[in-house]
Prior knowledge:
single chain; alpha+beta; Methylamine Dehydrogenase, Chain H; about 35% helix
Amino acid sequence: MSTSQLGSPRKIVDLGAGITACAWLGSQGLVAFLTSRPARLVVAPVGATSGEPIDLPRITAQEVALLSKDVALVRDKEGTVWSVPIADPYRVREVVRDMRTLLPRPSGEGALAISDDGKLITLTLGRGEVSARPAEVSGQIRAAHVGPGVTYLLAEGEQGGQLRVIPGTALERIPSARVSLPAEASAFDQVRGGGAFGVVFKRGEASLCVVTQGGERAEAALVTLEGPIADVTVTETSVVVAFASGKLALYEAATLVAPGEGPKEPASTVAAGGKGRPRVLLATTTKGATSIWVGTAEGEVLRAAVEEVEVAAPEPAKVEVVAPLVQGASNEEIEAFRKEIASLKGELGEKARELQTVKGELDGKARESQTAKAELVEKVRELEVVKSELAGKARELEVVKSELAGKAHELSAVRAELSQQTHEFQNQTRELDSKARELEAAHHELTQAKRDRTNALDELREERERSEQSLGKRIDALLPERARGGVDFVVSLVESRLRR
């Protein structure tokens, strides 16, 4: 008789920040782990003992899918899916927006995404480009999982919704089985599946819904585990659970669906170890060997082997003959003690479950606090960058202020010079006005003198005419011709001077 058992996890790589998602590319034998703040991606072969992370400087990463050894898809916090060349992560390209979930496909060359309004989108790699197209699937999809040979779709519906099992990756095919989940699973938003069964759960809850398929019929069973769940992964025959407490547990599928009350007992448990509590799980199978990969809240990637061990059949219990008691408590007292012990055990079990629930809530709060702390640290860094930019701007403003002060000083000097020149110009204007008034007065006097000379000339002319008329012929007779010419010359000279 053989059973599965978890080996001790071994650290492979440390990304230095909380891991948010992982992906498996079975066709190439590669695994990928992703951090958010800061965004880093490591892609390594399943047999690797180390890995070299790369930074994604332009993305606040949340989920990842490997399309090939060269191309990955990353969904950011805002819901945008980016195509990322692994060799050159700076050359990211936007593929589609408003996606709430990105689902890797182990075969590669494609992936699925669920939009904010519950529509299913197929992402396909072709000739180096990633194309997106809507899938013809009825209903509003809440969650999904793509396995090596089967696809699980969780659609909204009555009670806890409907889980559809589709063979292969062709989503247009008719589901091989449909099963309605119990009402307790209405808030479950994570799906993991294998070949013969799948599980639906919600992180932080202490229960999960196991769906088993036999032919065209599928059944769903709600089972309780020992504590809040961090993540779940599925192998061919087992379910591996990472608890918020830091423990890993392997459950046989047949044991999970077996009838019984109380938390299910795992077939194997082991402490995750490493730094931080486990956050994401991934199961890979190559050449018949199965490994469980663990991504922690502190950024470590761990790997544990799933081993098959032979277990001997239990031997019948031996009956020992006990000598009768000579003295001691009566049967009634013993029965009362047993009942009291059973009652105390029940109370202790209830207290333990309550403490486990409280512990899970505290762990959830701690994770939220860590996330908030990381976001605050990022905000502080952003504020420091803004502060540095503002300091640079302040220095530039000081330089501009100094230049403006110099310009103002120069303008003041120019203004003083202009004021002085204006004052001088006003003085010159007043002097010119005074000169103009003097010239105007002199012009007036000259004009008056000219009028006086003109009047005097007119009087001389009239006097000449009268003299000529009175002397008349007597002058002509008495004076010789030459004397008359001299008189005419004198008269002409006087007239000329008067005109001046």
